[in-house]
Design goal:
This protein is α/β, with parallel strands linked by helices. It has one domain: Decaprenyl diphosphate synthase-like (Undecaprenyl pyrophosphate synthetase, 3-Layer(aba) Sandwich), CATH 3.40.1180.10. It is built from eight helices and five strands; from the N terminus they run H-H-E-H-E-H-E-H-H-E-E-H-H. The chain has a three-stranded parallel β-sheet with strand order 1-3-2, sandwiched between helices. Strands 4-5 form a two-stranded parallel ribbon. Strand 2, helix 4 and strand 3 form a beta-alpha-beta unit. Magnesium ion binds next to loops.
Length: 232
């Protein structure tokens, strides 16, 4: 979700106003995905690097998180959406950590869609914390280094029980991953949009879905193996 600051600047408004509009766009995206039968939606709300922003902007973002968690949970419950936060939660205030845990608990039994919010998240952080856990298992003798496979790695990641993403959407015009789900995006279709996040709406989501529908996913195979009878 990129482009909040530029959206605000174009209107000669403070960046924080862009973030406020960004929350609305996120709500639109969640509703639209839930209505379209998306199984899992992951929103990259705050990266491990975003802590470097001016203190005031970080403060506003934290206030927006706290506020929106409380405000959105009833609708999530009503729509059967299960909320989960991934990232380095220890970096947040006790209050925010408690809010996150409470929101997760209140939506834990929902099964219409998983909404994953990546906060203080970084793909490198995720892979590193997984490696550290595996190293601890090796040290304790519970795991042989030879037994470490991609599948073993998978379950140590923050996304352990979630499917790898089919489609990645980045708004705001930049064409980079910026430390999002690095491991999990290995075979994901990448869609880059020039729209600034606060302007994101259903029509753009549908354009992204149309792009996805036009892709052929081979996962390393050749085209004939996919199109043919499977013996090729
Ligand atoms: C994305 O918008 C929102 C967050 C990272 C929280 P930006 O704040 O990065 O907006 P630009 O890139 O400055 O326009
Ligand atoms: Mg940005």
């Amino acid at each position: 979700m990129d482009g909040n600051g530029r959206w605000a600047r174009a209107r000669m408004r403070p960046r924080t106003e862009g973030h406020r509009q960004g929350v609305k766009a996120a709500r639109t995206a969640v509703r639209a995905c839930a209505a379209r039968g998306v199984q899992t939606l992951t929103l990259f709300a705050f990266s491990s690097e975003n802590w470097r922003r001016p203190r005031q902007e970080v403060g506003t973002l934290m206030d927006l998180f706290v506020g929106s968690i409380g405000r959105e949970v009833p609708e999530l419950v009503e729509k059967g959406i299960r909320l989960r936060f991934i990232g380095d939660r220890g970096a947040f205030s006790e209050r925010l950590q408690a809010r996150m845990a409470e929101a997760e608990a209140r939506t834990a039994d929902n099964d219409h869609m998983d909404l994953v919010v990546a906060v203080s998240y970084g793909g490198r952080w995720d892979i590193t914390q997984a490696a550290r856990r595996l190293a601890e298992q090796v040290r304790s003798g519970a795991l042989e280094p030879e037994a470490i496979t991609p599948e073993v790695m998978d379950v140590q990641l923050a996304t352990a029980d979630l499917p790898d993403p089919d489609l990645f959407i980045r708004t705001g015009g930049e064409k980079r991953i910026s430390n999002f789900l690095l491991w999990q995006l290995a075979y994901t279709e990448l869609y880059f949009s020039d729209i600034l996040w606060p302007d994101f709406e259903e029509a753009e989501l549908d354009r992204a879905f149309a792009f996805f529908a036009g892709r052929q996913r081979r996962f390393g195979h050749i085209q004939e193996q996919i199109a043919g009878n499977g013996d090729a």
